[in-house]
Design brief:
mainly alpha; Helicase, Ruva Protein, domain 3; 2 domains; two-stranded antiparallel sheet; 5 helices; 3% strand
């Protein structure tokens, strides 16, 4: 299992797909990196040589914001919204949908810790 910037990527998948297991890298960024490094996108990640891994590490650390730094930046952005008391910050603080989704129904998938939803009480006979 190749290790790139501290993340184990799946060895038996294509290189384009394996790189997407790194936080902050999607399909487009993965393809762009492979094109820059002139690697075969259909090659399995297990076939990467040490020099290829070193090149990938170097390009990720120099050109892109990924993993810990990106997570930290996202958390700082959310913290800033909460501290300036913006509407989005309030929604983050309350654990409600932030991007305008409806909450009357279908707001079950919340951010954060699981909260139980009480069932309807039956009317006495």
């Amino acid at each position: 299992m190749p290790r790139i910037i501290g993340i184990d990527i799946p060895a038996n998948k294509r290189l384009v797909i394996s790189l997407t297991y790194i936080y902050g890298i999607g399909n487009v960024l993965s393809e762009e990196m492979i094109r820059k490094l002139k690697l075969d996108p259909d090659m399995r990640a297990s076939k990467l040589t040490e020099t290829d891994i070193a090149k990938i590490n170097a390009i990720l650390q120099s050109d892109y914001l990924v993993e810990g730094d990106l997570r930290r930046q996202v958390q700082n952005n959310i913290k800033r919204l909460v501290t300036i008391h913006s509407y989005r910050g309030l929604r983050h603080r309350l654990g409600l949908p932030v991007r305008g989704q409806r909450t009357r129904t279908n707001a079950r998938t919340r951010k954060g810790k699981k909260r139980t939803v009480a069932g309807r009480k039956k009317a006495p006979k």
